[in-house]
Amino acid sequence: MSTVVALHAHPDDEALWCGGALAMLAAAGHRVVIAVATDGHQGDGADPEAGVRLAELDASAAALGAARVVYLGYADSGHGPLFFPDPADRQRFARADLDEAAGRLADLLREEKASVLLSYDARGGYGHRDHVRVHEVGARAADLAGGVRVLEATLPRETVQRLVRVGRLGAVFRPSAPPGQAAAAEPAPPMFTPRREIAYRVDVRRYTRQKRASLAAHASQLAGPRAPARLRRYATRLPVPLFALLGGREYFNDPSATPAASFLDVFTDAV
């Protein structure tokens, strides 16, 4: 069995980007470690909300069968342009020095003897600054650690573009604007990955109960009137078969020169 480290930007990203795959890997006997770059809160570390989101991450990881959760110590950079100042106690992830942040992750990869790192596509999905930084830091950390294969979580661009055109569903992928500025009608393309370039389309329907529980563990992100919160709240209330229709497929790019025959083969070959 292999060890996989999944790097995410914020608590709840692990559920949204690859919760089913993480549950699948854990069920298959692989050691799953979730590393989160930020605590998901834009205030300082003394604010109780920061601790709440990390506690929710622990509950989510338990639902997925992850063996360990690691917080890299950065602050959430927020959506859109980087207009938030750094908190007094730590730095925004998007402002972090690339080698310094990658060094923290590389140390974890070496400590865990990880063979695979899950990261994000080069666009950070829909362009969130912290998500783009996950891609950059993940790629650099794998180089520093050596012998670590990278897979990049993504979505089919064509599917996302259709969702963006369907009114409020597009708000999930539409970053907020800084105070005093109007939000864009939709995120600037390109987003995610063209379907033809995606290496692995992973059927995780058997693990959607765990994925739904993982998402539901992030209760702070289910509250409120904004469209993303409402959609997540509705999703966690769906019966498992209906939730599987929405979240039963996950997608990964493989930047290696020799893609494996299937997603699970990557982890078998890496041992």
Give an overview in words.
The chain is of the alpha/beta class and 271 residues long. It has a single domain, classed as Rossmann fold, CATH 3.40.50.10320. The chain is built from ten helices and seven strands. A seven-stranded mixed sheet has the order 3-2-1-4-5-7-6, with helices on both faces. Helix 2 (48-64) links the parallel strand 2 and strand 3 (68-74). Helix 2 (48-64) runs antiparallel to helix 7 (208-216), helix 3 crosses helix 5 (129-145) and helix 7 crosses helix 9. The longest helix has 17 residues, at 48-64. The N and C termini lie close together (6 Å). Residues 177-183 have low confidence and may be disordered.
Summarize the topology.
Layout: E1 3-8, H1 13-27, E2 31-38, H2 48-64, E3 68-74, H3 98-112, E4 116-120, H4 124-127, H5 129-145, E5 149-154, H6 157-165, E6 200-203, H7 208-216, H8 227-237, H9 240-247, E7 249-253, H10 263-270
Parallel strand pairs: 1-2, 1-4, 2-3, 4-5
Antiparallel strand pairs: 5-7, 6-7
Helix pairs in contact: 1-2, 1-7, 2-7, 3-5, 7-8, 7-9
Task: Briefly characterize the structure.
This protein has helices at residues 13-27, 48-64, 98-112, 124-127, 129-145, 157-165, 208-216, 227-237, 240-247, 263-270; strands spanning 3-8, 31-38, 68-74, 116-120, 149-154, 200-203, 249-253. With 271 residues, the protein is an alpha/beta fold.
